[in-house]
Amino acid sequence: MKTYSKSNQKIQTSAIALLNLFFFFSASEKTGAQNNAGILGIDHVGINVPDLNQAVAFFDTVLGFTPVTQIGPIPLDAGWKEANHINQQTGAVTIKMINAGTGASIEVFSYADNKGSKVHPNSDDIGASHVAFYTSDINESVKYLKSKGVKILGEPFLTPSGDTAGESWVYFETPWGSKMELVSYPNGKAYEKANPKTVLWSPKNASVKRTSADDFDEKKNTQIIENHLKIWNEKDPVKRSSLLKEFYANDIEMVDHNFIAAGQEEISKFIVELHKKNPDFSFSAKSIETNHNIVRLYWQFGSKAKPAVVSGMDLFVIENGKIQKLYVFLDDKK
After folding, report:
1. Per the structure, how many domains does the chain have?
2. Same domain, 305 and 218
3. Beta bridge partners of 107
4. C-beta of residue 115 within 8 angstroms of C-beta of residue 90
5. What is the DSSP string of 36-103?
6. What is the distance between the alpha carbons of residues 60 and 108, in angstroms, rounded to a whole number?
7. First-residue to last-residue Cα distance in the chain
8. Do 106 and 137 lie in a common domain?
9. I need a surface site. Which of 124, 168, 183, 220 has the fewest CB within 10 A?
10. Contact 52, 70 (CB under 8 A)
11. Pair (173, 101) in one structural domain
12. Pairing of strands 248-255, 179-184
C-alpha cells in the first residue's frame, strides 16, 4: 500500500474533493472493519448438487438464469480433501457459475463418485441454508413455477407486523430437493418507514435500470416534472391515479427528511392528507433544471394570496420515461 506525505495529500481537483467528502461522511466503525478485511460484498452462493446438468437446466430453463463459466473436472488431492472435510474416496469436482440476475451469482458444483452424505439437512439442522430470490409479483411467480412442475411448500405468507411487515414469502423445492425461497416487498418493509441509518440491500432497489435515449431528453423530462406538479395538485382520486401510473414508476420511492414513501399508493395517501390540511393550497414551479436523467425542481406551496407559504427543492431520477426516485428538500423556515 502506498503512503502519502502531507504535501502529497493536497487536493488537486474538485472530483477528488467530492470523493474524499463521500468517504468521510460514509465512514463508520463497521465500514472500517469491512474495509480492513477488504470485503466489498457477496460474490456468489455455492450449492453442491448431485447432478450438475440437472441443476444447470433448472436454473437456466425454469428460473431464467444464465450459465456463464465452467471449470473442471478438477481432481482433488488428499490434503485438500482433509482440510475441507471431503471424503477421501470422492472424485473430481466440476463447477458452473450462473448469473442470477441482479445480485450474487450462483456457483453450482458437483463431485464425481461423491461419497458424502446424500441426505439434505432438515431446516433446524446446523448448516441448513437456503437461497431467496426476489420477485415483484410473488403470486405470478408461484403460478409460473407450479406450471413448470416445481413443488411449492405452502402458500405465500404476508408478514403482518414487525420490521418486515409488507414482505411476502414462500419456499419451494428444486428437482434435487434443495429448499429455496421466493420473497417480495414491492412497497418496502415496515422498518424502512422509520428512515433508518442502514437499509438492507435489495435487488428491488439495486436493479440496473435500462435508461433509454428519451430519459436524457430535456424537453420530455421537463414535461414529466410539470405532470408531477399536476399529480400533487389533483384532488380527484381517479385522475390522480391515472397520472401516477403514467408518470411514476410502480416502485417509486419518495425520500423526505422525516419519512420514506414507497410506491404510488403511499405517495397518493400523503397527497390526500396534504390537501385535507391545506384545502386552498397548491404547488407551483419556480424553476426546473435538467441534467441528463436527473431533474431539479424549485417549488412553492401556498394559497393564491400567499403562494410561497412553504418552498423547497425536489430532486428526481427518471428512468424509462417515469420518475423512479424523488428526494424532497424543504427550505429553512425563517
Report:
1. 3
2. yes
3. 46, 97
4. yes
5. HHT--S--EEEEE-S-HHHHHHIIIIIT--EEEEEEEEE---HHHHHHTT--TT---EEEEEEE-SSS
6. 12
7. 50
8. no
9. 124
10. no
11. no
12. unpaired
Return d(Cα 59, Cα 44) in angstroms, integer. 14
112-156 pLDDT tens trace: 999 999 999 999 999 899 999 999 899 999 999 999 999 999 999
Do residues 87 and 164 share a domain? no
Identify whether the C-beta of residue 313 lies closer than 8 Å to the C-beta of residue 288. no
For residue 290, give its domain range: 213-330
Looking at the fold, whether 77 and 107 belong to one and the same domain comes out as: yes
Do residues 109 and 184 share a domain? no
Residue 13 included in any domain: no
Are residues 252 and 318 both part of a single domain? yes
CB 114, CB 90: distance < 8 Å: yes
Is 152 strand, coil or helix? strand
Question: What percent of the chain clears pLDDT 90, i.e. is strictly above it?
Answer: 72
3-state secondary structure of 114: coil
pLDDT for 24 beyond 80: no
157 within a domain of the structure (yes/no): yes
Residue 83's pLDDT band (cuts 50, 70, 90): very high
pLDDT at 251: 83
- CATH code at 242? 3.10.450.50
Residue 1 covered by a domain: no
* Separation between Cα atoms, residue 106 and residue 270, nearest integer Å: 40
Q: Choose among 145, 140, 138: nearest CA to 166.
A: 138
212: left (phi over 0), alpha (psi -120 to 50) or beta: beta
Cell reading at 200: 438492507
**What pLDDT, on a 0 to 100 scale, did the predictor assign at position 205?**
74
Distances, alpha carbon 250 to alpha carbons 48, 273, 304, 322, in Å: 37, 21, 33, 9
Q: What is the CATH number of the domain that holds 186?
A: 3.10.180.10
Crossing angle of helices 237-247 and 264-277, in 10° steps, is 140
- Quick count: other Cβ atoms within 10 Å of Cβ 192? 21
Contacts with 53 (C-beta within 8 Å, 6 or more apart), sequence order: none
